[in-house]
Amino acid sequence: MKIALAYDYLNQYGGGERVLGNFLEIFPKADLFTLFFDQNKTFGHIPGERIKKTSFLDKKIVINNHRLFIPLMPKAAESLNLGNQYDLIISIGAGYSKGVTYKNSYHLSYCFTPLRYAWESENYLKGKFGSNYNLLRPVLSPLVSYLKKWDMEAGQKPDEIITLSNYISDKIRNYYKRESEIIFPPIDLNVFYPENPYKNRQYFLAAGRLMHYKKFNIIIQAFNELKLPLKIVGRGPELKNLIKLNTSKNTHFITTLMTDSEMRVLYGNAKAFIFPQIEDFGLVAAEAIACGTPVIAYNIGGSSDIIEEGINGFFIKEQTPEAIIEAINLISEARFDSHFLSKTAEKFSKNNFRSEILKKINGFAL
Tell me: the pLDDT tens digits for 185-207? Predict the structure, then answer.
């Protein structure tokens, strides 16, 4: 089979780009199509030679300010015309990649989530525009309507949809009126594994892009009161606000780019990984568990597929500092075995992911 991979855009490197990297490994001869690409911003993890074509948005101003160009992204995706030269197209992402143009190809979508700016605009646009949101609503409302209509139509294009959690499967059912199969995204168990006994753990840990919706603020507020050691790993637009919010001398920010091996050490010395946001899945939470570290997570979102209450972590029922403090107290009273805890992450292995994807592809080929 001749296979093409389509991805939304590549101007950052996070969980979604890790998933793309696994598809590139599984299909080493597949061509890659994306709206725009920056080798530096993806830190060399995505090989430029794999990219067959980018869209008319592949310009520096867009790469550096991509959210300003969201209204143009549907047309940019449609401008990527793959013709009829591919037997199979696998679109991967959280929005635009499933809108590429093609003829006579079988289209399999690995959908991270339906387009957030279309279906959950209140959450995302309020966070971006803050107190100006109500003033801008008359301007933003037609854009949201356009994105919702486009995404609904694009959501009908794939012949089959795969997704990464029960949480997103429910969204696909509600928004696209379609069923989807769940294949959990992969973590590398050759990289993420327990090194230290749990009794030797020294601090608490949080990590990720420092965005408003990831709720790092309530973690800091909780530890301002607890005064326990906390490390926060990440960079993003909320960094300055979070530093101002912090009043504890025991909270430390790590903003340098960390390798997977360095993250394994950080995970492996933590008493718990704190994950209070709503995520489509939550690769960092799965990585922490693979390193033998329990997770404190909000009980809505992809974390419900990762956390087994009392076995490898605890849920909080509210996104508040008080709920985190209560969970920290539960963690402090619990006894964990890092190697036993790590085994609960084996279902997220790269081998399982590869096997499930190839099983799906082989079924198509037959």
Answer: 999 999 999 998 998 898 999 99
Nearest in space to 14 (alpha carbons), one of 205, 224, 263: 263
> Is 198-348 in CATH node 3.40.630.30?
no
Evaluate if residue 181 carries a pLDDT over 90: yes
User: What's the Cα-to-Cα distance from 301 to each of 19, 251, 276, 292, 311, rounded to whole Å?
Assistant: 18, 27, 10, 22, 18
Q: Which candidate, 350, 276, 353, 346, places its Cα nearest to that of 313?
A: 276
C-alpha distances (whole Å) from 350 to each of 157, 193, 343 are: 28, 13, 14
CATH number for the domain whose boundaries are 3-186+349-365: 3.40.50
The pLDDT value given to residue 130: 66
pTM to 2 decimals? 0.91
> What residue spans define the domains of the chain?
3-186+349-365, 198-348
Residues whose CB is less than 8 angstroms from the CB of residue 328 and which lie 6 or more positions away in sequence, other chains included: 204, 222, 226, 228, 272, 296
Residue with tokens 């949101």: 133
